[in-house]
Structure formats: structure tokens, C-alpha cells
Amino acid sequence: MVDFQKTRDAFDLPEGIVYLDGNSLGPLPRAATARVSALLRDEWGQRLIRGWNEAGWMAQPGRTGDRIACLIGAAPDTVTVGDTLSIRLHQALHAALQAAPDRREVLTCSGNFPSDLYIAEGLLRTLDKGHTLRVVPPQEVAATLSDQTAVLMLTEVDYRTGRLHDMARLTRAAHNLGAVTVWDLAHSAGALPVDLRGTNADFAVGCTYKYLNGGPGAPAFLYVRPDRAEQVSPALPGWLGHAAPFEFEPSYRPAPGISRMRIGTPPVIALAALETALDIFDDVAMSDIRARSITLSERFIAGADALGLQLMSPRDPARRGSQVSIAHPEGYAMMQALISRGVIGDFRAPDLMRFGFAPLYNTEADIDTALAHLSDVVLNRLWDNPAYSVRQAVT
């Protein structure tokens, strides 16, 4: 049986705070402070540039990638870590388009994070080969797939509502029509079981600062199915994706497999913090995390229902990720009122309050406390305070 009290103790959670925003930024792992401090002091401070060899810095992207692979159902040597999610998506989509050279449609849905759509639009415009980006409602994706689809590009869990796509079914449907798949796992990795190998997904990307708890701006990951990896000609052929970077050849020669998708210098300090966060997953099965996530979210939904609030997430937990979204015309002010009382979630325009559930550190007591404050805010109209309506830069 999983000891979730032990995993909770592995995080440095502020006293008196109920943190339900791990779907935006995970909390600080206690071990990260000492690990990063040691890296600064003993590795960078004492070894200087020798740290690349002596401290294993250069191997971090692959080493960390293998640890993430365990959490997303991928084989070893299929995941690399570094750069941002936007860069990783650009790489994956470009590679997917290479695999479908005779087709011109990229199919996606309105549940994708806007940045994914921006990246796709920019890439297709730059390629200037007549590609189109077709955006449909999430529930219409399967019916819209056709033999004209080059790439199906989807975020598995909708960042607004938590709606969960059926990766296995949609990947199979895409492949049956000759299309290639790109999955964004930003709201999946570390929150629910993912089976990239079992679903035969072609490409996947994701960030590490949400449910993986890697810290603000933590680097993103990229997965390429092994049989695809040797066929990819990277859109961003970086120095460290070269077969022999320290030969300093004037022309690019791709490294084997996933390594060719490396671009620039690894973010050593950020990767060290991420490694401590991944340590917390070592003794926990993703199936256990998922089961507890459902328990917590169902408890929260029951309380929200009792308050008459409008649930925007799927009611069926099998169709929902690890967050619950509630719509309210005063959603921003209501969330600010909650935050002022020590219950931290977030807001997404125009009217969604989001609550993320991370079983590694959230408890039933957290849910009950959050609901008690939510009840007070709703029943006593505590949001009706002008200060709570002042929009901050980050909502």
C-alpha cells in the first residue's frame, strides 16, 4: 500500500496553505534545496568546467528522460529532456509532418493550450507548403479525422476543463487513416497513467513543472517512437544533437535515436532539481496515483455540487484528468478570495476556477478545508470585494 503521507512529507509545503494548483506549478521537493546547493557549491563551484565530465552533466537529458519514460509508458532511450515545451512541440510537429509528406492538414482541437496552436500556425506558415491547421471541438476530433489528415495534434487533458482524450482510441483511428500523432502530456505526466508504447503513439511532449514538480521553468521532454527516431531530420539541428559534437564538424550529422533531438546546452541546475522531484515517484505506481486522484476529485465535486456550483469538468472520472473546473461569472474574484484564505487554485478566462489534485501531497483534509472556505466564499459573497477583482499579470 502506498504511503502518501511519506510522499507528502517529501515536499516543503507552507504551513496553513491548501495547495490545489499543482496543475500549474508543483511545490518544492524538500531535497531540491540541498541538491541544488550541493551542485552550486561542490560541482560548479569546485569542479568548474570539469563538472561536464566528472559530475555527469552532459548525460542529464538522457538520464532524466529515462526516468520520465517510466512514468509515461515509454521504453528507455526514447525520451530526452531540455529546452521548453514550445520548442519541443515545434520539433515534434515538424518531424510528424516529415512522416506524412503528401498530406497538408494538421487536425487539432480547441482544448489545446493556445501556445500549441500558435506554434503550429507559425510552423505551417514558415514551411509555406499549403498546410492548414484545422481546429474542431474536442468531441468532434474522431469524426473529423480523414485520409487528408497528416498529423493529429492533441493535448491529452484539456487545460481548461480537465477533459481527457482517449489516447489509445484516437491514435488507433489516426493510424488506420494513415495519419501521425503528436500528444501533449503537459497535464498528464505525473498525474495519470500514460502508455505511449502500448498505444503506439508517434510523438509526445510535456513539461515538468506541473505534476512532475520540477520547479518554475523546468525543462520539457520529448518522446519519439523508436522506429521513427532514425527517420527524423530535426527542424532544429543543434550542436548537442550532432553525432559527434566535440569533433566540431562544419555540417550537421544526426546522432542516433532520440539523441538527435537534443538542441543546446542542458539546463544543469534545473535538471538537478527535477531529478529530486522524480525521486518521489520511485515507490509509487501511477495506477495508485490515479486511483487516489479520483477519490480526491470526487470528494471535491460532491462538495461543489452541494453548493450549487456549475461543474465544467466531465462528471465521469474516466473522462477527466486530475483537475476540476468550476464556472462562475465572478470566478476570478472568488479565486482571489480563496487564495487570501490560504486555498490556492487558479483562474482561466473567461470564468473558470481550476483546482488541481496531486495525490503525492494532497489529502482528504485538504479537500475538506478547501470546501469549507469555498462554502464561506459562496454563501457569504466574500468575492464581492473590489480588491479581489483587480487582475494580476498571472491568473
Q: Can you describe this structure?
A:
This is Kynureninase. By secondary structure, the protein is an alpha/beta fold. The protein has two domains: 4-28 and 285-389, Aspartate Aminotransferase, domain 1, CATH 3.90.1150; 32-279, 3-Layer(aba) Sandwich (Aspartate Aminotransferase, domain 2). It has helices spanning 4-9, 30-47, 51-54, 60-71, 85-98, 114-127, 141-144, 167-176, 196-199, 226-229, 268-279, 286-306, 331-340, 364-379; strands at residues 18-19, 79-81, 105-109, 132-136, 149-155, 180-184, 203-206, 221-224, 310-311, 323-327, 343-344, 346-348, 352-356. The strands form three sheets. A seven-stranded mixed β-sheet has the order 2-8-7-6-5-3-4, sandwiched between helices. The protein has a four-stranded antiparallel β-sheet with strand order 9-10-13-12. It has a two-stranded parallel sheet with strand order 1-11. α9 (196-199) links the parallel β6 (180-184) and β7 (203-206). α4 packs parallel to α11 (268-279) and α12 packs parallel to α14.
What's a concise summary of this model?
The protein has 395 residues and is of the alpha/beta class.
